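Morning F.,

Quick status update on the modeling queue. The single chain you submitted on Monday has been processed. Sequence for confirmation:
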Amino acid sequence: MGDFAPVFVFMRKQNARLVCKWIWLQQREGSWKVLMSSNLFKKSIDMPADAKSITEVLPLVLRKIVRLVVGTISFPALVEMLRSVYVEEGRKKLLRDGSKPTKSALALITGMDTRVVSSVLDRGSDTSFDPKQISPEFTLIDMWSSDPFFVDPETGQAATIPIEGKGRTFQGLVLKSIGRNITVKTVLDRFLQSETVEVIDGDIQKVRLLSKEYTPITSDIAKLTDITFLEASRVMSAGIHNMNSIPEERVPQQGRWTYRLSPEKYRDFRRDARNLLLNQIKEGEALLEKYEEAQKQPGQLTVGIGWYQWGDLNSDDLGE
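C-alpha cells below.
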C-alpha cells in the first residue's frame, strides 16, 4: 500500500468558516498523492440566527424606502442622513445598556471609523440638508441662479443660455455642477418633465429657468409619501415597544393574510376590506375622543391606532 503521512497544509476561510485541514498523502512508486483530507478544527463564524433574520428582511423594508425616494433624494444624501441617525441611535443604545457612549464605543457599535463618528458628533443631531445637497438637480439650479458666470448681469436672475456648446451653456452648466457622467439630454428631460425649465426654439436652441423650486414629484405624491413614512414609523414603533416590554404591556401588532386569493376577486376583496376598515376607523375615532383631554398641556402623551390593507397586486396591474 505504501507509506501514509498526515501533513498540516493550510488554514483559510471557506464559506464564512475558518477551516484548518490535514492532507493525507500516500506514497506510491516514489511519489506522493493526496489520499484524503480532514478538518483539524473548525471555528464557526456564521452569522447569528437573529442577525441573519434581520439581513433577510431588511432589504424588503429598504426596497420600499428607496422606491419612495429614488429620483427625489440622492444616494449620497440618504447615506449622510443614515450616518447621522446611526450614530445617534448607537449613542442611545449604549446609554440604555449602561455604557458610556465614547467615540471608540460608537465606532465599534456602528462599524464606522472614529473620525467619521467625530464629524457626526461635531455636527450634532441635525439631519437637515441644504437643498443643493439633496440631489444633482438642486445643485445645478443653485449654480445657475447664483454663479455670476451663469447669471444675467442685468436682471440678477438665471440667464437664458444655449443648450449645447462649451462655456456659458446648459451643457457647460451640467458639466460644472454635476459632472461628465450624466448627459445633457438626461438632465434636460428631467427638468422639462417637472416644468422647471422651458426650451426656446430658434437658430440656436436655448433653455430658460422657470422656477428655482425643483419638484420631481407632485404635491399630492409628496403628501402621500410623508404619510407613508409616518405610518411605517409608527408600525415599527409598536414593534420596538413590544420588544422592550413584558407580555402584559405589549400593544396589538398583528396582521392577517391569505395566499389563495384569485386575481379576479381582488377588486371585490379590496372593496369589502375598505368598508370593514371604515367602520373600524369610526369606532377608533370615538375611542380617541373618549380619552382625549379638552386642552393641550405639558406631559400629555401621543397615542394612536392605524388601519391599512395590503396585497401583491398594484394599481398598475389593475389598469387604474
